[in-house]
Design goal:
Radius of gyration: 22 Å
Distance between the termini: 37 Å
Largest sheet: 5 strands, antiparallel
Low-confidence stretches: 1-34
Number of helices: 13
């Protein structure tokens, strides 16, 4: 675990055993105030819990005995609340609700804005499912968390495919089909050979994603959607961000969600691959298209979720890495912790994210000074111009 301003790591608990209403010893926090680093550590543990529970059970109800990681997170939350003089949650359902309503900057966690955007919750307030930021926080750990699970699944698939072309076909299928319906077999472009290689990466639609026996799919990103009121939307009726949640979170609401009324005839891609492969895939395609139009060669790098090495870029090695991450500081931390094998890497994110107030600045500020010239945040639109600028800088330094 790395040190410095982006530390999410382990801190020694101070004041353990303090009960609500007990006299505060010198140096202990006021009631409701989180001890230094302990709140951040707890926030990260809760992120891992939320991400894991979303995969292992239906979330409609939490039956006793709770899974071990959930019980540990609940116990630590209770102890932390008692330490700071706050009433703790009494059960796992109540803790889940806390994760929906208490943001990162709540005094209980006190996660700094330089790490996670204020107002960020681990459970989405509308969908009541893990937020994208939750999965990003859960991926910031030595073993890579949820994002590493996606890389491992793709690595296993690549090994099974044997040839690069087979792997590219399978990867493209996964990215474009986060949900597969039985009727898709009869559609254009269906390949039984591809399906036979990837079908083990799909599972039945979980009950937690059904509404009155119907599955909702976002028309923009193709990922699961859920209504706030728990009722199936009326076809043709307008919807807003306040009415509908989708796993992509950032999609426009011009069209109502698609309804799959035979959910037992559909399969859904593993959650880690939906978030870290399917979600950024449109940005990846746009980046590749921009390189193709400019005549810039690019070869996929094995072992990564979405990275390419560019050819004919001068004397230095230049890579592009594509991401769709809501938290710029965590993205910078991920890149800092990873091995940067190229002389320069262009980090491609969606235009809408790069255009957000403070996104670029937060990303750059979170990078170590030595990497700020080697890691350049860009978008599909700006990729080729930024690549040309990098080439000119390289010639100027020569």
């Amino acid at each position: 675990m790395r040190s410095g301003p982006l530390v999410l790591g382990v801190a020694r608990r101070r004041g353990r055993g303090m009960r609500a209403g007990a006299a505060r010893r010198p140096g202990q926090p006021e009631a409701g105030e989180a001890p230094e680093d302990v709140g951040i550590e707890l926030f990260c543990e809760l992120a891992r819990m939320v991400a894991a529970l979303a995969e292992v059970q239906g979330l409609r109800s939490f039956a006793l005995p709770y899974p071990g990681l959930a019980q540990r997170a609940l116990d630590r939350t209770v102890m932390h609340c008692l330490d700071v003089g706050e009433t703790p949650p009494r059960s796992l359902p109540e803790l889940w609700e806390w994760c929906r309503t208490r943001p990162a900057d709540d005094p209980l966690f006190a996660v700094p804005a330089s790490l996670v955007t204020p107002g960020t919750t681990l459970v989405h307030p509308v969908g009541r499912m893990p937020s994208r930021s939750c999965l990003e926080v859960a991926s910031y750990r030595p073993d890579g968390g949820v994002a590493a699970q996606a890389r491992a699944l793709l690595g296993d698939l690549e090994a099974r495919c044997v040839t690069g072309e087979r792997y590219r076909q399978c990867r493209r299928f996964l990215a474009r089909h986060p949900v597969v319906h039985r009727q898709d077999r009869f559609g254009p472009g269906w390949s039984q050979a591809v399906w036979s290689r990837v079908k083990d990466l799909y599972g039945p639609l979980p009950e937690s994603l059904l509404v009155d026996g119907v599955f909702l799919r976002c028309p923009s990103c193709g990922l699961p959607a859920l209504p706030r009121d728990g009722a199936v939307p009326v076809p043709g009726s307008p919807a807003t961000d306040a009415d509908i949640w989708c796993e992509g979170e950032e999609c426009p609401r011009h069209d109502p969600p698609e309804l799959i009324r035979e959910p037992d005839q559909a399969w859904i891609l593993r959650g880690s691959l939906r978030t870290f492969l399917a979600l950024p895939y449109r940005t990846e395609e746009a980046a590749r298209d921009a390189l193709d139009r400019a005549g810039v060669g690019h070869d996929a790098l094995s072992g990564s979720l979405s990275a390419y090495r560019l050819s004919e870029t001068g004397s230095g090695i230049v890579d592009i890495q594509v991401y769709d991450r809501l938290q710029p500081a965590l993205l910078a931390a991920h890149l800092t912790d990873g091995a940067l094998l190229a002389d320069r890497a262009l980090v491609v994110v969606p235009d809408a994210l790069a255009g957000r107030d403070g996104y670029r600045e937060s990303f750059t500020d979170a990078l170590p000074a030595l990497l700020r010239d080697r890691l350049v945040l860009t978008t599909p639109v700006d990729l080729v111009p930024d690549l040309g600028r990098a080439r000119r800088e390289e010639k100027g330094d020569a």
